[in-house]
Each structure stands twice: as structure tokens, then as C-alpha cells.
Design goal:
Distance between the termini: 19 Å
Structural class: mainly beta
Oligomer: single chain
Strand order of the largest sheet: 1-5-4-3-2
Helix content: under 10%
Shape: globular
Length: about 55
């Protein structure tokens, strides 16, 4: 998959072929080189790049 993005980058949608991973009750999306955490922004969900759990 694509190159690693900077931690803190916000995306409106996830790339294809992401895998949901739950670590210590926190949901992440693993998309190859990038880990995302879903967050609410107003009334929509966005995905922020985070360090791997």
C-alpha cells in the first residue's frame, strides 16, 4: 500500500483494504503502512493517522 503518512494527518475516508484492530478497547484501522483512529468531527467520522499501537 502507499507510503507512510505523518502522524496527525486527517483523512475523510480510509484507503481500501484496511483491517479493524482493537487494542485495549481502542479501535484502530490498519491500512498497510498507516494506522488510523476514527474520530468524530461535528456529525461525521474522520480518520486521524496515529502511531502504531
Amino acid at each position: 500500500m502507499g507510503a507512510a503518512l505523518a502522524v496527525g494527518t486527517v483523512a475523510a475516508t480510509l484507503p481500501e483494504a484496511c483491517q479493524t484492530v482493537v487494542v485495549s478497547g481502542v479501535t484502530y484501522e490498519n491500512c498497510g503502512a498507516n494506522w488510523y483512529q476514527p474520530q468524530f468531527l461535528g456529525n461525521r467520522t474522520v480518520y486521524t493517522v496515529v502511531a502504531p499501537p
